[in-house]
Amino acid sequence: MAKVAFLGLGVMGFPMAGHLVKAGHEVTVYNRSAKKADEWVAKHKGKKAATPVEAARGQEIVFSCVGNDDDLRSIVYGETGAFSGMSKGALFCDHTTASANVARELEAEAKKRGFGCLDAPVSGGQAGAENGQLTIMVGGEAATFAKAEPVAKTYAKAITHMGPAGAGQLTKMVNQICIAGLVQGLAEGVNFAKRAGLDTDKVLATISKGAAQSWQMDNRWKTMAEGKFEFGFAVDWMRKDLGICIAESKNNKARLPITALIDQFYAQVQARGGGRWDTSSLANLLMKD
Predict the structure, then answer these.
(1) What is the per-residue pLDDT for 289?
(2) Is 222 left (phi over 0), alpha (psi -120 to 50) or beta?
(3) Which of 17, 77, 214, 256 could form a disulfide with 6 if both were Cys (CB 3.0 to 4.6 A apart)?
(4) Which secondary-structure segment (H or E) carries 161?
(5) What pLDDT is recorded for position 246?
(6) Packing angle, helices 200-207 and 167-195, rounded to 10
(7) How far apart are CA 160 and CA 38, in angstroms?
(8) Which residues contact 271 (CB under 8 A, 6 or more apart)?
(9) How distant, in Å, are the alpha carbons of 7, 61, 222 from that of 4?
């Protein structure tokens, strides 16, 4: 069993760190809000630290899952940052959905300090984290990945090495681009079925058994049709992710016309006060004439 730290106890990190304890690993957590760390310790019986450097000191692997590039830099750099407490030969594994640039930056800094670094964003949402069924896409050196894989499998149904530093984040961008198009298509289909006077439940139950099937259809069409969005992966988070995708597309010259359009649809959802609604709330924009 490994001695590890987990930095960031949001809706994803909280259960992910819990799975590590259940698997028998020795876990120390850090969270910007100390109250959340206290709640985690009360539930999972691990340890907590007051700063990232304290949490990281002496650990074999330091995992993290925070909000964005700036949040990530804030927990790794400086006297209180995790990198200042990590030993040579240790490993930093970041599950944040961030830019490929920051992934490459952190790996270069980690190499200077004598330890490994992986960018390992996840897909599967809160339910996937709670059920230990996440999909993890990893960038970094193969030997470093081999060290992290057995431990990260604790909360994953699939974990794949995608290539060098940044490849994990680039793969996550592909994931979000595909999801955005699927959700908009499903929203339009549900709305069309309702306006055509069809039995929406029967329609979606039928077509979900054919070529139109997707995770989004299986898990979101009922709540979409009912106009229920107070759960799931927040629009605010999706817009952050799509912003990363669009920024990267300017570097690699990929054209993302549909992604850019759907990003603006999500901006309209935010304007309606739906920033914390699930991404399926694109349907809300179609519900009224």
Answers:
(1) 61
(2) alpha
(3) 17
(4) strand 156-163
(5) 98
(6) 140
(7) 33
(8) none
(9) 10, 5, 40
CA distance 202 to 243: 36
Amino acid at 283: A
Pairing mode, strands 134-139 and 122-123: antiparallel
What's the full length of the chain, in residues?
Answer: 289
| Alpha carbon distances (Å) from 98 to 31, 46, 171, 250, 279 | 18, 27, 11, 16, 18
Residues facing 61 on adjacent strands: 4, 91
Quick: pLDDT tens for 28-59: 999 999 999 999 999 999 999 999 999 999 99
Count the helix, strand and coil residues of the chain and give each as a percent rounded to the nearest 5: 55, 15, 30
Mean pLDDT throughout 178-194? 97
- Kindly state the average pLDDT of the residues 208-214: 96
Domains of the chain: 3-164 (3.40.50.720), 170-286 (1.10.1040.10)
List strand residue ranges (DSSP E) for 19-124, in order. 26-30, 47-48, 61-64, 91-94, 116-119, 122-123
Question: Taken in order 209, 215, 217, 221, is the CA torsion positive or negative?
Answer: positive
- Please identify which residue in the block is written with the tokens 């074999």: 60
Residue for token pair 């925070």: 66
Q: What is the largest CA-CA distance in the chain?
A: 65
